[in-house]
């Protein structure tokens, strides 16, 4: 049933443009989460690069002499030697990646659920549809985000080159995009996309299926309604499920 044009203008933006609103909300949530967790990702990457650089420089003796400092000491070392804000060095391509990936997969999943597969008469979304929809949404989201994922990895590899005393290849995110595009063309931005979408399909099969199942259970068995609070609680429970 269509809404009259005058009434449509009075609707909140989230109801007038539900897909665009879902994309923006998912992108904003992903940005906040990335900003909060990026220092941990950076520290992990630094520790890995430190080990690889030590092995390349010292060979087997690196196991005894490599200067591993642990997570906390590595974080303190970055702050003392480079500055507090360096804990977020390289966060820009990671944010780009999560906005495209999270927004793309959620919009795709919502479209598959509401339009392609459809719900049953009792508004229940069968498990098998959630599984297929989650996998397809992961494939679409990762395929769209592959260029940003590639740039993120390439920018992280710059840290290894710096530790090895090699010249840096990129001056920034946009320079990395331009260089990859000039060297490999459009197809170069999708290098490695096949294993990436395979992983995303499996991850989202679990994530989105659990999210939808938990949300449906909460709406049916608790006083909660199908609103942003329920969506947030469902997402948190999915995160807890992944952590365990």
UniProtKB/TrEMBL annotation:
Key word Thylakoid present: no
Pfam families attached to this UniProt entry: Mito_carr
Keyword ATP-binding on entry: no
InterPro entries in the record: MCP_dom_sf, MCP_transmembrane, Mito_Metabolite_Transporter
Main location: membrane
Record keywords, A-Z: Membrane, Repeat, Transmembrane, Transmembrane helix, Transport
Solcar repeat start and end residues: 21-115, 125-217
A single Gene Ontology CC term: membrane
Compartments (UniProt record): Membrane
Membrane topology note: Multi-pass membrane protein
Domain of life: Eukaryota
PANTHER family: MITOCHONDRIAL DICARBOXYLATE CARRIER-RELATED
The family this protein is said to belong to: Belongs to the mitochondrial carrier (TC 2.A.29) family.
Protein name, entry field: Mitochondrial uncoupling protein 4 isoform 3
Lineage, opening ranks: Eukaryota, Metazoa, Chordata, Craniata, Vertebrata
The gene coding this protein: SLC25A27
């Amino acid at each position: 049933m269509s809404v009259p044009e005058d009434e449509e203008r009075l609707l909140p933006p989230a109801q007038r443009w539900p897909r665009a609103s879902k994309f923006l909300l998912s992108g904003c949530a992903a940005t906040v989460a990335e900003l909060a967790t990026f220092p941990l990702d950076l520290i992990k990457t630094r520790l890995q690069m430190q080990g690889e650089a030590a092995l390349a420089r010292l060979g087997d003796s690196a196991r005894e002499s490599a200067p591993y400092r642990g997570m906390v000491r590595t974080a303190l070392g970055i702050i003392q030697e480079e500055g507090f804000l360096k804990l977020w060095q390289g966060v820009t391509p990671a944010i780009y990646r999560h906005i495209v990936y999270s927004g793309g997969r959620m919009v795709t999943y919502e479209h598959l659920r509401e339009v392609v597969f459809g719900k049953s008469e009792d508004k229940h979304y069968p498990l098998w549809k959630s599984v297929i929809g989650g996998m397809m949404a992961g494939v679409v989201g990762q395929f769209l985000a592959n260029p940003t994922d590639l740039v993120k990895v390439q920018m992280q590899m710059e840290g290894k080159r710096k530790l090895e005393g090699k010249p840096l290849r990129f001056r920034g995110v946009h320079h990395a995009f331009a260089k990859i595009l000039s060297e490999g063309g459009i197809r170069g931005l999708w290098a490695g996309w096949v294993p990436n979408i395979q992983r995303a399909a499996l991850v989202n099969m679990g994530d989105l299926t659990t999210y939808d199942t938990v949300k449906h259970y909460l709406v049916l068995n608790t006083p909660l309604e199908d609103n942003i609070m329920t969506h947030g609680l469902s997402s948190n429970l999915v995160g807890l499920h992944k952590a365990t």
